[in-house]
Specification:
Elements: H1 2-19, H2 28-55, H3 61-94, H4 98-103, H5 108-141, H6 146-175, H7 180-205, H8 219-226, H9 235-248, H10 255-288, H11 300-312, H12 315-330, H13 332-353, H14 361-391, H15 402-407, H16 412-442, H17 446-473, H18 489-522, H19 528-560
Helix pairs in contact: 1-5, 2-3, 2-5, 3-5, 3-6, 3-7, 3-9, 5-6, 6-9, 6-10, 7-13, 9-10, 11-12, 12-16, 13-16, 14-16, 14-17, 14-18, 16-17, 17-18, 17-19, 18-19
Length: 565
Amino acid sequence: MNDVVLLLTPRWRKFRNRLKAPRKENLRFPFIAALVLVLWVVIYVVFAKVLAYFTAEEMFGAVAAVKLLSMILMTFAFVVIISNIITTFSTFFLAEDLELLIAGPTPSRALYTARFLETLGDSSWMVLVFGLPVFLAYGTVFSASWSFYLLSLVGFSALLVITTSLAVFLVELLVKTFPLRRLRDVFAFVALLMFVGIYLLFRMIRPEEFLNPEGFATMMDYLSILSEPSHPFLPTSWILEMLRPYITGHGYLHRLFYCSLLVMSALAAFRLVGHYHQAAYFEGYSRALEARGARLSRSRFMAFWQKVLNRWFDRPTAWLLMKETLLMARDSSRLSQLLLLAALITVYLYNFAVLPSVDSPLAAFFLKNGIAFLNIGLAGFVLSSLGVRFLFPAISSEGRAFWILKGSPISLHKVFWVKFGFYLAPMLLLGLFLVVVTNHLLGLRPFMFWVSTVTVVLLTIGITSLSIGMGVIHADLKDADPARAFTGFGALLTMIYGGLAVASVIVLEAYPVYRILSAGYFARAMGPLDYVIVAACFTATLAIVLYLIVKPLRMGLKKVTELEV
């Protein structure tokens, strides 16, 4: 036990030092705590409202609430096991301190237990934290006793241990056969395909129809579909059966049986995987140290890309652009997340393709234009999140090698502008693709089409400027993993600033767009006051976007020359 505590001490000290961080870091945890509290309240209120609606229906309220809990548990389990698999690669095989620990007299069981707890915490804390208000809503709406909350915590904790054990076993089994780094990308891609497939299947089923019993031949058919049991050998089914009595009001005698089954299964899974770890870990870790060849930089595509850059740009700019291309292509985590982005865009566009039809021409006109207008904000938030993930670490990803750029005869301002241009082009293409395709699917008139397109283009330039500029201001070139700068407090601030800018633009453009669309549809002329308000709103919007573009660029250009390794 002392060995496990000793192995976990660096993580604890790192966390403690962050709490003592000076200046700009000292507001990080209160801010994040406040944000989590707000999300807790939102999740609790939403689920409380939904469950209250279910309880108002005497015929199927309790059955629907149990079915919803089953879907939530299955979703949590799916998310946790995929997250655990991805995290296991890092904690058990790719962590930088493993070379020291493996070479030293570290007990195998202590290393397994410490890494198991790290994997469990790193991959499951978010699901655990945001799952608590869901169970709190269930307990409050159904007036459950204190034992409901205790059993929920025990059962959910056991589920996390079981899924983590399964993930560790699966990864250690496969690492002995397949290359580790490529295997991690394969898992990320498979998880991505599963997510998209499940979502598309979920949308095709149209679950909202289950809230309408009139669509079924008989009420018994409806109740039989809702009451179909889950698989009896899944831990999620055991949690459901353990908590079901608090919702339906009967079956309390089986609670302790399912609770004991969960706890014993969790302990058995942890111990059995520990035995396998002692027998197979060293061989898998040895294979994880195998290096990859430099195939990418010597490929024909990169040679062709180099010729294109040399043709259109001067030599320093061409080589800087080539360096950015290689940095992007060599980062496997970015590539897997680009695949995730492609899948999310597919889901995003599919939602517009399956919008319900409306019989009234007036309702259809305002529904389509309203959705198109809100799509500006949705596209803006998507681009903001992408800016934080891919653009914010643009300078930090240089790491300690930044001294090469600083000592070269190339101006750091030129380096800054090359990075800005390199990332602006794909961001513009993505923003235009989102807005143009969705506008085409909605069949909009020219006015709304051009307003949404121009607004998204300006927001894209502003978000790119904000992400690059803030990335320079909050760059930490001495970090052991500078590419993970997007997880820091500066990235969170960038996301908040981007979101506020997008929200401000939407609020300012709402009245002018509505007024012009109404005047065009009803053939009514706008008065002088309307023209003044419309002009003032569009001017304020343009001022916000220009400030979003210019201010971060100026701050970034000033800060980039002051960076030290």
